[in-house]
Amino acid sequence: MDDKLIKKLREVAPSVYPKDLDFECRSGWYDILLKVGLALQKMNVEGGWTEPLIAGQIKEKFGTLRWYANPTNGNMEAAQKIIREAEHQSTKTCEYCGKPGKLRKKGWFKTLCATCAVEDEKITPEEAAKERLGL
Ligand SMILES: [Zn+2]
């Protein structure tokens, strides 16, 4: 993930994204992480929890986002819903550029748009053209 985007995430959700957290995914998922960050930041401030919910690990695994929270306490039901939705969004958002994408299973699994999938040699330009035409 681009350093400027990481800085922005920490600015808008300081209680959620600590300074020592690594963002082990690419910049295309920035909007997803921003949305989770803003929602959980609000919950941390207003939720009346004994301790704030902090991102413990954020990474791409088998082509989709994994968002691990810390602590994993009993207050987390509402938060988990937000996190699960974000992980679901990552299954249809290009990890590289943020455009609509889908899970590509050639080689390392990656969720990519047609253009990025060609650049990553997951599909051929012909396959990408067909996909864009909905064929
Ligand atoms: Zn893309």
How helix-rich are the residues, as a percent range? 40-55%
Q: Given the C-alpha coordinates, what overall shape results? A: elongated
Strand order of the largest sheet: 1-2-3
Strand content of the residues, in percent? 15-25%
What would you report as the Rg, rounded to the nearest angstrom?
16 Å
Low-confidence stretches: none
Q: Describe the biggest sheet? A: 3 strands, mixed
* Tally of helical segments: 5
Q: Span between N and C termini?
A: 32 Å
Total domain count: 2
Number of strands: 5
Oligomer: single chain
Instruction: Give the averaged pLDDT, no decimals.
Output: 93
Please trace the helix and strand order, writing H or E for each element.
Answer: HEHEEHEEHH
| Bound ions, cofactors and other small molecules, one mention each | zinc ion
Q: Look at the helices and sheets and give the structural class.
A: alpha+beta
Outline:
By secondary structure, this protein is an alpha+beta fold.
What does this structure look like?
- The chain is an alpha+beta fold and 135 residues long.
- It folds into 2 domains: 1-91, no CATH class; 94-135, no CATH class.
- Helix content is 41%, strand content 17%.
- It has 5 helices and 5 strands; from the N terminus they run H-E-H-E-E-H-E-E-H-H.
- Helix 1 (3-12) runs parallel beside helix 2 (30-46).
- 30% of the residues are buried.
- Zinc ion (ZN) binds at residues 94, 96-97, 99, 101, 112-113, 115-116.
Provide tags for this entry:
elongated; alpha+beta; 2 domains; 135 residues; 5 helices; 3-stranded mixed beta sheet; two-stranded antiparallel ribbon; 5 strands; single chain; binds zinc ion
